[in-house]
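Sample entry (335 residues):
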Amino acid sequence: MLTYTLRRIITSIPTLLFIALAIFLLLELAPGDPMAQVPLTVPPEVKEKMRLALGLGEPGYIRFWKWLVQFFWVEPLNLIDWAFSTNFADGKLRVISWQTRSPVMDIVVQRMPQTLWVVGMSYIVGILIAIPIGIYSAYRQYSVFDQVGTFVTMVGYSIPPFFSGVLVIVIFSIHLGWFPSIYDTTHQVNDWDSFVIQLKQMIMPVMVLALQTTAQISRFMRASMLDNLNQDYVRTARAKGLGEKIVVLSHVLRNSLIPVVTVIALGVPAIFGGAIITEQVFKVNGIGQLLITAIQANDLPMVQTLTFIFAILIVSFNLIADLLYGILDPRIRYD
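Predicted structure, serialized as tokens:
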């Protein structure tokens, strides 16, 4: 497995470089001018100097090379400096946001806790709810629980977040007054009372996002369980006298988790990407909202860096999912 992992890591390097080039070229072709936000009273010659200061006067291949060096060399050095109090990155130019004139990675680190609080928690809650529902729905196929669960999950998967988000705000915030409609990103948890406030403002966005996660994963879990419950090895295990609980949880569940692991692993990068629509509805100042504001402001370094980070996460969790296959199914070997 170690050889397979190293081989996958090596082969993913050209893939990521191709993705970086594709992102850069697409942003180059996208309409919009970063100088469009500059007031009209600024003279044209000053705008031209500002454009040159942003590096827009250089050829595209030079700007792409500079971004690669900054992302893969300068930013890791800056991380080492922060962790070990060294000065390897002193004097080196980092990836700078055109909109805020500050390092992109610093802004990402500032926004990440808000996204993890809301989107990360909703993903965990959705998985913990979806897997038991999928298992029991498959085991009790066509029962009342299965039919109700199928209806609820299909509705949850079909309703878009911008509708369900507004709906829960109207019900639980406006009419009932239980929870705040706007997420306060400046709130700090210092004691029990502040933790309760944080919990209250998280409930609605977590509810909206967990509904979609639960709907998707539970359907995959149910379908995979149904496929394995009718296999010969299940009948053999029952014929040997094994208890139904052991057959379902030890044999069927382990094999059924293999395709579900792919869905769960590929959904993890969406946590870091943030739920763009939900963050807009509840005013969560996270990564998703950061990407939207960067696109609106034509902040190409921010958009390029965030998009490439998402690509790295997708490639990485694809590898993690493949490795988990070997753990869940001993028949899989990476020779």
